[in-house]
Design the sequence.
């Protein structure tokens, strides 16, 4: 696994407010069939790339402004960021961990590129999720934030607390459990099963299979 540290600082006028540190992680995808992601607060963008032979992660970590020495200490004590291989599975962890820096919780924004053929399991705290161009099954459990999933070949299961959701161009079945927020489902080749307990508009179009509502 290759780990690269890049420090980016905002202009002086904003320095008293926030620093952004970028970390890059990389792992060969040889023998890996699935990627499991456990993420905290921050956006998550995942794209399948034809011909890619590795998993590539760019993490932009936002935190209160501090000097360079304090940043290194803060990241060691506050941020849990790892990309590991376990058998035929890869695991990406990107979240805050308990430390004495309780008043400065980081925001970890993730951009992930994977081979197009990859199963995904996602447990996300808060922040928007975008997933595209994947051949494989996808299961995602999201606390809050908007969701966009498109151009998928495989079955899709989404459990969402709150936030708008768009699922489109899915060659497979779709199962949705949603707390609140608008839901837009378009161009699904198999069945759609949906359970929406909260408020928000619902649009389901161009479904070749059955649409089943309720638990």
Sequence:
């Amino acid at each position: 696994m290759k780990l690269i540290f890049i420090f980016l600082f905002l202009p002086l006028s904003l320095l008293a407010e926030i620093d952004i540190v970028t970390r890059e992680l990389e792992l060969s995808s040889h023998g890996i069939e699935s990627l499991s992601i456990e993420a905290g607060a921050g956006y998550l963008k995942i794209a399948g790339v034809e011909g890619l032979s590795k998993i590539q992660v760019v993490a932009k970590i936002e935190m209160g402004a501090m000097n360079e020495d304090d940043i290194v200490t803060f990241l060691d004590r506050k941020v849990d960021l790892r990309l590991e291989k376990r058998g035929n599975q890869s695991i990406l962890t990107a979240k805050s961990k308990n430390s004495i820096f309780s008043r400065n919780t980081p925001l970890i924004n993730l951009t992930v590129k994977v081979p197009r053929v990859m199963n995904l399991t996602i447990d996300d705290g808060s922040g928007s999720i975008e997933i595209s161009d994947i051949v494989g099954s996808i299961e995602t459990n999201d606390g809050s934030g908007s969701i966009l999933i498109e151009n998928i070949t495989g079955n899709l299961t989404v459990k969402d607390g709150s936030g708008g959701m768009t699922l489109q161009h899915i060659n497979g079945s779709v199962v949705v459990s949603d707390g609140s927020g608008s839901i837009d489902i378009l161009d699904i080749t198999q069945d759609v099963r949906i359970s929406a307990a909260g408020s928000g508009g619902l649009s389901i179009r161009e479904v070749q299979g059955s649409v089943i509502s309720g638990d």
Remarks:
- The chain has two domains: 1-121, 137-215.
- The longest strand covers residues 19-28.
- The radius of gyration is 18 Å.
